[in-house]
Specification:
About 60% of the residues lie in helices and about 5% in strands. The longest helix has about 35 residues. It is mainly alpha-helical. It has 2 domains: about 160 residues, no CATH class; about 375 residues, Orthogonal Bundle (Neurolysin, domain 3). Helix 1 packs across helix 2, helix 5 packs antiparallel against helix 8 and helix 10 packs across helix 24. It binds L-captopril and zinc ion. L-captopril binds next to helix 15.
């Protein structure tokens, strides 16, 4: 491996150069001092470099074309080179001789990129170009069954999945979108080779092991932890699956939705069958008992993307968060442009480690988009809360925390809250209304759990070489069937690359974070409701406008990743463990109801 010496003139940099290249046996006290200076240097260099990378990435994501693809790849390449060099220099410091803060910062440095490059410059350039290319392919993908005039992009195809109840139309939209991922397969195979090589150079078994090392516990322990959580929530999912399959049989017939078998994946209202809220009308427990059509209210009141975003901002401000900076409004992309390809998958951006925060989302006036905007602002307020931390601690306590903030707020968007902001009628409390409401939420929150788990199950095995390229698609469907109990709509082959039809695969974003978030957010919600002094069932609690809850929330966010997540979790919830007791408590009424409904049914697949 190449050893790189940094030649700089400042005092700090001199320490850095010395520590990285020459002295190996200095006394512990000097080591610690040098390490502090080294970490300080890292933090400022990383902040500077990532600013450039963020600018290139944002320009690319909001205007996909060959030039931005190239510039994004180049900026990434520089970041990857910096990381390789910095990690190499960091080897001069022995963790046991450092103070805990420096040791943690150096540990986090090693985990700082989601796909580390090999030190070989050619391979690094290849990796950077590949990741940039795959992301663009996904963002610009279109299904064109009958020439250029017939093209449909992801937004149009996912709309069909959400709204159509025509089996053949659903199947075509599903198949069409999935066909766009075929060309990504070859690049993904090479990507896995290169990123694994990078991870191995850093001392990890493979890239999956590296991802699993970012949870303040040994990677193998984390694997067990994730399985333990899945075992806790699996029965909840099983009940929902059973009930929904029964309802879909009524809509599409038992031939198409056979008893005791996985559900065809195109019938669940979502391209990936990951959240099922769109089929609520097909499965509504008590038709007419609730009038909660938020989408209709948004349309009727002519909510535009800015107003939707302001509504989310208001929620956070009601908790005591600051208003969003003016630049947020000037620089965010809130609506889909007509004249260029953009990455429509919603995301939140921390551009400069300071107050330049943005979101990018092709917002439409629907309930699902409304919830997603609140989700994205959760990321944004996390960024703003930890902006005074050093760069290496500017992250979620773990990545599941980052995903859980906005979703915790989503849980407070109760019928009473929606009524208060004028998006729903007055709530007439009844058991039927509660069950309807819980069903609507369960279609998102419980339905998501197996999907959240299986994506990285697939990737962990791919990175470990347990799933070979010639088995990519078959292994994918085996997991989807086992975990989710869904089946491919039409026969698949290894020409297909169905994992690549999901954003986070070509964009190489780890996914277990969402699985963790879907459990954690209920723990956060319960703790914040307690802080707010709320008494009553969890699903009726909203922390909107509650300053005590807001204070507790903000205190947690301000810590970023500066300490092990267990400490941070304990501070908010009193426990050091993620666990499913809160989600089970939250859905208690629905779970009891489902048990009744499913009596006599042969559940499972
Ligand atoms: O990717 C997202 C967010 C951006 S962090 C919109 N989510 C996952 C997905 O869409 O697959 C939120 C739920 C899960
Ligand atoms: Zn997110």
């Amino acid at each position: 491996m190449i050893r790189r010496c940094v030649r700089l003139t400042t005092a700090v940099a001199a320490v850095l150069a010395v520590a990285g290249c020459e002295r190996k046996t200095e006394p512990a006290a000097t080591q610690a001092e040098n390490a502090d200076a080294f970490v300080e240097q890292l933090n400022s260099e990383l902040a500077e470099l990532s600013r450039e990378a963020a600018a290139a990435a944002y320009a690319y994501a909001t205007f996909i074309n060959p030039d931005t693809e190239f510039l994004n790849a180049k900026a990434n390449e520089r970041v990857l080179e910096y990381f390789s060099g910095a990690v190499e220099r960091a080897k001069a410091y022995k963790p046991e001789q450092l103070n805990p803060t420096a040791a943690r910062a150096i540990q986090l440095l090693k985990l700082g990129v989601s796909a580390p490059a090999p030190t070989d410059a050619t391979k690094r350039a290849e990796l950077a170009a590949l990741t940039s290319k795959m992301e663009g392919m996904y963002g610009a993908a279109k299904y064109c069954p009958k020439g250029p005039e017939s093209c449909k992009d992801q937004t149009e195809l996912t709309d069909i999945l959400a709204r159509s109840r025509n089996y053949d139309e659903l199947t075509e939209a599903w198949t069409g979108w999935h066909s766009t991922a075929r060309p990504i397969r070859k690049d993904y195979v090479r990507f896995v080779e290169l990123a694994n090589e990078g991870a191995r150079e850093l001392g990890f078994d493979n890239l999956g092991a590296m991802w699993r090392s970012n949870y303040d516990m040994p990677p193998d322990e984390f694997t067990k932890e994730a399985s333990r959580l899945w075992d806790q929530v699996k029965p909840l999912y099983g009940s929902l699956h059973c009930y929904v399959r029964g309802k879909l049989q009524k809509t599409y017939g038992e031939q198409r939705v056979p008893a005791g078998k996985p559900i065809p994946a195109q019938l669940l209202g979502n391209m990936w069958a990951q959240q099922w809220g769109e089929i609520y009308p097909l499965v509504e427990p008590y038709p007419g008992a609730t009038d909660m059509n938020v989408t209709a209210a948004l349309e009727k009141q002519k909510y535009d993307p800015v107003r939707i975003t302001q509504s989310a901002e208001n929620f956070y401000v009601s908790l005591g968060f600051p208003k969003l900076p003016q630049t947020f409004w000037e620089r965010s992309l809130l609506a889909k442009p007509r004249d260029r390809d953009v990455q429509c998958h919603a995301s939140a951006w921390h551009m400069d480690g300071n107050e330049d925060v943005r979101i990018k989302q092709c917002i439409e006036p629907t309930q699902e988009h409304l919830m997603t905007v609140y989700h994205e602002l959760g990321h944004v307020f996390y960024y703003l809360s930890y902006k005074d931390q050093p760069y290496l601690f500017q992250s979620g306590a773990h990545d599941g925390f980052h995903e859980a903030i906005g979703d915790t707020v989503n849980l407070s968007m109760t019928p009473a809250y929606l009524h208060r902001i004028g998006l729903a009628g007055a709530v007439k409390p009844s058991n039927e209304a509660t069950i309807n409401q819980q069903m609507r939420l369960a279609l998102d929150k419980l339905a998501f759990l197996p999907f959240g788990k299986l994506i990285d199950e697939w990737r962990w095995k791919v990175f470990a070489g347990e799933i070979k390229p010639e088995e990519y698609n078959a292994a994918w469907w085996k997991l989807r069937e086992t975990y989710q109990g869904v089946a491919a709509p039409v026969a698949r082959t290894e020409e297909d690359f169905d994992p690549g039809a999901k954003y986070h695969i070509p964009a190489n974003t780890p996914y277990t974070r969402y699985f963790l978030s879907y459990i954690l957010q209920f723990q956060f919600h319960r703790a914040l409701c307690q802080a707010a002094g709320f008494q009553g069932p969890l699903h009726e609690c909203s922390i909107y406008d509650n300053k005590e809850a807001g204070q507790r929330f903000r205190d947690m966010l301000a810590l970023g990743q500066s300490q092990p997540w267990q400490d941070t979790l304990e501070k908010l919830t009193g426990t050091r463990e993620m666990d499913a007791s809160a989600i089970t408590e939250y859905f208690a009424p629905l779970l009891a109801w489902l048990e009744e409904q499913n009596k006599g049914q042969s559940c499972g697949w």
